[in-house]
Amino acid sequence: MKIIVMGCDGYIGWPLTMRLTALGYDVVGIDNYSRRERVAEVDARSATPIASPWERFTELSKRYSNFEFRFVDVCNKSQVDHLFEKHRPDAVVHLAEIPSAPYSMISQGHCIETMENNVNGTLNILWAMKKYTPDAHLIKIGTMGEYGTSNLDIPEGFMKVNYRGREDTIPFPKQASSWYHQTKVHDTNNCMFASKIWGLRITDIMQGVLYGVSTPEMMCYEGDEEEINPSLVTRFDFDEVWGTCLNRFVAQAIIDYPLTVYGEGNQTRGYLALRDSLQCLNIAIDNPPEKGEYRVFNQFDELYSVKQLAEKTKKIGAEYGLDVKIKHIPNPRIEAETHYYNPDCEKLPLLGFRPTFTLEDELRIMIPFLMKYKDRIKEYEKVIKPKPYWRT
Length: 392
Hints:
With 392 residues, the chain is an alpha/beta fold. It has a single domain, classed as NAD(P)-binding Rossmann-like Domain (Rossmann fold). It has helices at 13-22, 34-41, 53-63, 77-87, 101-104, 108-132, 179-198, 245-254, 274-286, 306-319, 347-350, 359-371, 374-379; strands at residues 2-6, 26-31, 67-71, 91-94, 137-141, 158-163, 166-171, 201-207, 209-211, 219-222, 225-228, 259-262, 268-273, 294-299, 302-305, 326-329. Helix 1 (13-22) crosses helix 9, helix 6 (108-132) runs parallel beside helix 7 (179-198) and helix 10 (306-319) crosses helix 12 (359-371). It is globular and about 55 Å long.
């Protein structure tokens, strides 16, 4: 099976590329390095010193002959068309989007940039599939944030309704909370429409918030000691624009910076370890939908409030001698402090998904590993405090 990974240089894309290559798939990795550029734009950097793209891809190519890289911008129609015409993939994992709500809220320019990159890029992929690989399977990474915090139980994509005596199955209402999340809603509508009119196979994954720093493919051995290969480690963002919640808390704990809990900290979401996200994506690839089928997977492990994440970071941090403090700050976002949240997650477990570690187990991997990079994190301490405010 030939798989194209769009966005292979990113936080998820790089470990996924290594996983699929190690499993024997023919993998074509696609990127334009824009994530590195946008992180630098907000004066931030990865806590882990990541290798250059050339070093990464050279190291992976040394290990496996079934990987190749192509520099492609998904917003460039001719580049995307040429890619699909030449490689004719069986499956495409689409990670080549700007994945940051705060980034999209910085300014009008950042909002439009996020819209153009995400929506137009996805449309280019859909049209290229129609023209060159109509039987291929698209795995598009969405977000649980598309649903917002509904006062109803959240199904996997669709719900049955009874209105004025008539019944129908309709897409569950979307309540995006940022311009970035709005792009994901547009992607969902466009994918659903493309599947309907062109008969494309599409899996739309509503992914929870990710955390973690390592996967088995990043490891190497020095004698009996297991270490992460510096050429293969993925990025770990901890700033307020690109760092996901738990990753940011771990970095803060390591440099003795109070954990910045937004508001009361009761905002609840689904969370998932990076390594388990790869497991879910692999399951989706190995179990494609029927031709013309558009399906939705909610992808997360457990539900936590932001306050619970802070308490768990404090607890596990103490095991490593960290005196972790928690500080509540004004919420820069527009979101309910207290809300109902009960999403379904049934389809992936039915296909075999089993979480690898608990959140606390993963913290015991993350904290000692990232303590090695305390000085790198401390040097960029200024990027932790939130700057984009939703109302300004």
